[in-house]
Amino acid sequence: MRAPPTVSKDGPRINEDIRAREVHLIDKDGENKGNVPIAEALAFAQAAGMDLVEISPNATPPVVKLLDFGKYKYQEQKKQAEARKKQKVVEIKEIKLRPMIDDHDYDVKMRSMQRFFEEGDKVKVTLRFRGREMAHMELGTKLLDRVKEDVAKIAKIEMDARFEGRQMIMVLAPR
Q: Which residues of the chain have pLDDT under 50?
């Protein structure tokens, strides 16, 4: 019969879970105590009322430190939460246009597009053709060229205009 497989926990090994015979010990004040046998390190930790936490498992011998494991885990969670908070998720906003759009409507769309770029989002410009507008594709191409020129300073073209069925699609990203 074989022994049951060891259950691997996430995070560093602590106290009796540390498998090395000899460890490099750092006490709670950050002082280097040098290489000591694991039994001595555990006794040291118990006397101080602290946990023995493996900081650098790949070193030879592994580096362990005396600290309060609950507090250490809490600090790590806070660090990870802070890192997640600082992440920016780039969204793709969509602006829908028609080939015969009026100047004022176009200006309104351009203002909202500019706001999206300032927020750091990408913009998908969709130009939809209906009915007989399909016979005048050059109007749509001119309109998308005008959009490209108007946002050239604040955005770059990520995907150039291409046809998908009855619509032309172009994706722009902030500079």
A: 7
The residues with which 66 forms a beta bridge, in sequence order, are 52
What is the distance between the alpha carbons of residues 22 and 64, in angstroms, rounded to a whole number?
A: 10
- pLDDT tens column, 11-58: 788 888 888 889 999 988 888 888 989 888 888 888 888 888 888 888
**Of 37, 62, 39, 41, which is closest to residue 51 (Cα–Cα)?**
41
The pTM of this model reads 0.54
- According to DSSP H, which parts of 16-168 are helical? 38-48, 69-86, 103-118, 137-150
Angle (nearest 5°) at CA 56 between 81 and 83:
15
Distance CA 23, CA 14 (A): 12
End-to-end CA distance of the chain: 64
